[in-house]
TrEMBL record:
<keyword id="KW-0328">Glycosyltransferase</keyword>
<dbReference type="GO" id="GO:0016757">
    <property type="term" value="F:glycosyltransferase activity"/>
</dbReference>
<dbReference type="InterPro" id="IPR029044">
    <property type="entry name" value="Nucleotide-diphossugar_trans"/>
</dbReference>
<comment type="similarity">
    <text>Belongs to the glycosyltransferase 2 family.</text>
</comment>
<dbReference type="InterPro" id="IPR001173">
    <property type="entry name" value="Glyco_trans_2-like"/>
</dbReference>
<dbReference type="Pfam" id="PF00535">
    <property type="entry name" value="Glycos_transf_2"/>
</dbReference>
<feature type="domain" description="Glycosyltransferase 2-like">
    <location>
        <begin position="26"/>
        <end position="181"/>
    </location>
</feature>
<feature type="region of interest" description="Disordered">
    <location>
        <begin position="1"/>
        <end position="20"/>
    </location>
</feature>
<keyword id="KW-0808">Transferase</keyword>
<protein>
    <submittedName>
        <fullName>GT2 family glycosyltransferase</fullName>
    </submittedName>
</protein>
Length: 327
């Protein structure tokens, strides 16, 4: 977190005061997407919930910072010195003045009333630490494939207000800031893939729950994100590292096997395999196996994912330009 600093013009200034009714802070993660960021911040500042808005900038070199500062003086900007990926959320969440924080990227924004619903759910269910929003495109009938998968693979829990999850979308969620801070935020070495996976396991291991929240509606444009070959390899490698940090040996070996399959499919078995091995020692030094109920939940979700992918061809056949699944 020491690489972050308030943006020029905001340095040393107190957090802007939002209307007294604000109970939630929205953190927008961005880097060099000035048009999308301005549009997103404009939508968020117009919400009826009047949330605090913090922009977490990952070292933009375009006009993002200066334009935001001139158009939205009420918005706090926290600027990192470089691209810290998902770890860019850490400093901004640490500065959030509210109990609840909604996280999104510069192409995602929450619908009017969504944040109020999320706050109500968290008020009524103190065991829930993270709510995953329902993410749709401009047409609300088109739901993000990741949300479909999360909902379809939930094992269910009658004590929770929605489907129980073993993971969540870091760019479309509402969380308890105190829980996030207590867990240390997102791991910077995993910040370009896998950081939220590790955070989810730690949230569950600490005795909290993660829930899919239908009323917390978020829009995203574009709805799908296409991964490059390098990104596919990074995600697979980092998932294997997370497994070695938190899951039993059999699960870690299975994650490693899946990573090697991805490397081979991306024709990067040598370089990506070496990177996986080199980072394995770092992961093992941080090994702390999750409780049995968390491991059971992850296994249930993994089995359900296989069944869903096999049983719903329309979902299983969403391929990106590199020939790999886009989610």
């Amino acid at each position: 977190m020491n690489a972050s600093a308030p943006a020029p013009g905001a340095s040393g200034a107190p957090a802007p005061t939002a209307p007294s009714g604000s109970r939630i802070t929205v953190v927008v993660l961005t880097r060099n997407h000035v048009r999308q960021t301005v549009d997103t911040v404009a939508r968020l500042t117009a919400l009826p919930e009047h949330p605090h808005v913090i922009v977490a900038d990952n070292g933009s070199t375009d006009s993002t910072i200066s334009l935001l500062a001139s158009l939205f003086p009420q918005v706090r900007i926290v600027q990192c010195l470089g691209d810290r990926g998902m770890a860019g959320f850490n400093r901004a969440i640490a500065l959030a003045p509210t109990e609840y924080v909604a996280c999104c990227d510069d192409s995602t924004w929450f619908a009017p009333g969504a944040l109020a619903h999320a706050a109500q759910w968290l008020d009524q269910h103190p065991q829930v630490a993270v709510l995953n929003a329902r993410v749709v495109g401009q047409d609300e009938r088109e739901i993000h494939p990741a949300c479909l998968m999360l909902n379809a693979t939930s094992p269910g829990d009658d004590a929770l207000p929605g489907p129980a999850l073993a993971g969540y979308m870091a760019g479309a969620c509402v969380l308890r800031a105190a829980v996030f801070r207590a867990l240390g935020g997102y791991e910077e070495r995993l910040s370009h893939g896998g950081a939220e996976e590790l955070a989810a396991l730690d949230v569950l291991a600490a005795g909290h729950s993660i829930v899919y929240c239908e009323p917390a509606l978020a829009h995203r444009e574009p709805l799908y994100r296409w991964f490059t070959r390098a990104q596919h390899c990074t995600h697979a490698r980092n998932s294997a590292w997370v497994a070695w940090m938190r899951l039993p040996v059999r699960d870690a070996l299975a994650a490693t096997g899946r990573a090697l399959v991805v490397f081979a499919r991306q024709r990067s078995l040598g370089p990506a395999g070496f990177a996986l091995l080199r980072g394995a020692f770092w992961a093992l030094r941080r090994r702390r196996v999750a409780p049995a109920h968390v491991v059971l939940l992850t296994r249930q979700v993994r089995r359900a994912e296989r069944l869903v992918r096999a049983g719903i061809p329309a979902m299983a056949e969403k391929y990106d330009r590199a020939g790999q699944r886009a989610w």
